[in-house]
Fold this sequence. Notes:
59% helix; 0% strand; elongated
Amino acid sequence: xxxxxxxxxxxxxxxxxxxxxxxxxxxxxxxxxxxxxxxxxxxxxxxxxxxxxxxxxxxxxxxxxxxxxxxxxxxxxx
Length: 78
């Protein structure tokens, strides 16, 4: 059981595996990897801030852009 848990921890994160591979092969350096991680973190944070500042759509717009034709079992009040 412990061995299985160790394997899951070791192999369950594809981003971590890719980082280790690129570092091991010398394709990137630790500094470049750290910068890429930080840039990605900041981009996600900035996008989240922007998304949270947008006006939320009304409930009537919930299915717009989801269905070409609204199915009969979904009642949309207009």
